[in-house]
Design goal:
This protein is mainly α. It has a domain of 33 residues. Helix content is 52%, strand content 0%. The longest helix is centred in the middle third of the chain and has 25 residues.
Length: 58
């Protein structure tokens, strides 16, 4: 009985950009939204002002 060596695993390749609501576009959009949300929280933490004060909406 012969055994075959395991095949090397390859890194997944990102799908090519496509127009519309694709799974790839939604994943990228959600990652940017998370980064923006954390940036907003850090801004409020360091300035001790909320976002609406920054906008001038007291």
């Amino acid at each position: 009985m012969t055994t075959q060596p395991p095949k090397p695993t390859e890194a997944p390749i990102a799908p090519p950009p496509a127009f519309g609501w694709t799974a790839y576009a939604e994943r990228i959009n959600s990652r940017f939204a998370m980064i923006g949300f954390v940036a907003l929280l850090l801004l409020e933490l360091f300035t001790r002002q909320d976002f609406f004060t920054w906008l001038g909406w007291h």
